[in-house]
Amino acid sequence: MKKSLGANTFAMPSPVWVVGSYGEGGEPNIMTAAWGGICCSAPPCVAVSLQKPRATYQNILNHQAFTISIPSSIHLVETDYVGIASGKNSDKFSVAKLTVVKSDLVDAPYVQEFPLILECKLLQAIELGMHTQFIGEIVDVKAEEHVLDEKGVPTLEKVNPFIFSAPERMYYRIGHALEKSHSVGLKLRKIPEK
Predict the structure, then answer these.
(1) For 62-118, what is each residue's pLDDT tens digit?
(2) Does residue 112 sit in helix, strand or coil?
(3) Residues 65, 71, 79, 135, CA torsion sign
(4) What's the domain count of the chain?
């Protein structure tokens, strides 16, 4: 029997992303965000939801761009730190000993040490309540060569990202591959009788 827990943010899991933006004076800033995901295939888009008090909120509106740097689990400490500290009064890149890279395509920085980067131009900002959802069109994906497979696409195992569980306020490492999508379920298709 299931127990009602009321209206809450208990969808599992959430990604752990680092959102890059430039401040009013051009200073690079990053923050950790978990309320995000892919929201469109064509054009390829991501959505990330932020609260108004965050420095990144106004930075994205001012520059009409942001990046998503996807950290591997070896950067857990740095990633958690940039989600705790405020970009309004600290240089998170310096404290976390992360390298700023200026995107050539959008007006936002990204983290050199993180293996997978999404460079996004802002398409929409949708007021939802406590959060505003920023929808960004992905104009380019950058990946370290060592995380690519033989077809040239990033693999989860090689990127080694980690996830967030909101109910527990815990990070988790992603487990092992199970089965190929869009194929394992074919076992349940009825075979027409001849």
Answers:
(1) 999 999 999 999 999 999 999 999 877 889 999 999 999 999 999 999 999 999 999
(2) coil
(3) positive
(4) 1
